[in-house]
Write a structure and sequence with these properties.
13% of the residues lie in helices and 39% in strands. It is mainly β and 218 residues long. The radius of gyration is 17 Å and the shape is globular.
Length: 218
């Protein structure tokens, strides 16, 4: 098991907490962490304070987390910060291992599209289902869902992680493999009431186009 930062190349015998906010300098290193799957364990009790209205974080920085068992569907969670309840929680149709493979290619662009309903359209975060494209390929759908007790437990284990990737200590479900995660800061940009995007921010403060998520209602 290999740690990061000042612990680089040191062998660690037990689970470690990963907080790479000062050590991860580029998207390429985050991709390396995906390949290494640095284990992370930060168990403690917590409760989420209520999140602000979704519109309050437009044009700001949010915390984005991908998580899921290796062979089962991956989820994406948007939070104002790691200590608050999700503003948005989506379940993608693709397995976590597929997403990890796309990340290793060096460019990941996820586009979520939906049709405008009749009458007044609500927030993009209220859309129940999206058609999903990954690097230009249609890969199924993304479904908005409420946070479950399992989701809350997973996010609790990652509360101390600001930026990083790894494997969480959780019991595997029927051969679904390890519980994997990737967490980073994203710049949230609202183009219009019908378009919004999230762009990974490298820990040096620069916004990156290497990992982006787009929401588009047309």
């Amino acid at each position: 098991m290999i740690g990061t930062g000042s612990q680089r190349n040191r062998i660690v015998d037990g689970p470690i907490a990963v907080d790479c906010s000062k050590d991860v300098r580029s998207w390429s290193l985050i991709r390396s962490l995906v390949e290494l799957m640095v284990p992370c364990c930060v168990p403690h009790s917590m409760s989420y304070p209520p999140s602000e209205d979704a519109q309050s974080t437009l044009g700001s920085t949010i915390t984005g987390t991908f998580f899921g068992y290796r062979k089962s569907r991956v989820s994406f969670c948007v939070q104002e910060d790691s200590g608050r309840a999700p503003l948005l929680l989506l379940e993608f149709a693709i397995p976590t291992c597929y997403l990890a493979k796309e990340m290793r290619s060096g460019l990941l662009r996820i586009a979520l599209e939906c049709d405008r309903p009749g009458g007044r359209a609500g927030s993009l975060f209220s859309v129940p289902a999206w058609t999903m494209y990954c690097n230009g390929r249609k890969v199924g759908y993304a479904i908005r869902r409420q946070m479950s007790e399992t989701d809350a437990s997973i996010l609790k284990m990652m509360r101390s992680v600001s930026v990083g990737a790894g494997v969480l200590p959780a019991e595997s479900k029927s051969g679904d493999g390890e519980l994997m995660f990737l967490r980073a800061s994203f710049e949230r940009i609202a183009g219009s009431p019908d378009s919004e995007s999230f762009h990974l921010i490298n820990p040096d403060g620069n916004s990156s186009q290497e990992l982006s998520i787009f929401l588009l209602r047309s």
